[in-house]
Amino acid sequence: MRTKGQLLTADDLRAAALQSKAWPYEEARKLIKRWPDGKDGGQAMIFETGYGPSGLPHIGTFNEVLRTTMVRHAYEELTGAATKLIAFSDDMDGLRKVPDNVPDQAMLTEHLGQPLTKIPDPFGTHDSFAAHNNALLRSFLDRFGFDYDFASSTEYYTSGRFDDAIRGVLAQWDAILGVMLPTLREERRLTYSPVLPISPTSGRVLQVPVSVVDAVSGTITFTDEDGAHVTQSALGGMSKLQWKVDWAMRWVALGVDYEMAGKDLIDSTIQSGKIARILGGRPPEGFNYEMFLDEKGEKISKSKGNGLSLDDWLRYGSEESLAFFAYREPRKAKSLHIGVIPRAVDDYLQFRGNYPDQPIEQKLGNPVHHIHHGNVPSAALPLTYGLLLNLASLPGCGDKETVWKFVQRYAPGTAPKTDPELDSLIGLAANYARDFVAPTLVRRAPTETERAALADLDAELAKMSEGTAADEIQNAVFEIGKRHNFEPLRAWFQALYETLLGSSQGPRMGSFIALYGVENSRKLIAEALAAKA
Question: For 270-280, how does the pLDDT look when each residue is reduced to its tens digit (9 = 90+)?
Answer without folding.
Answer: 999 999 999 99
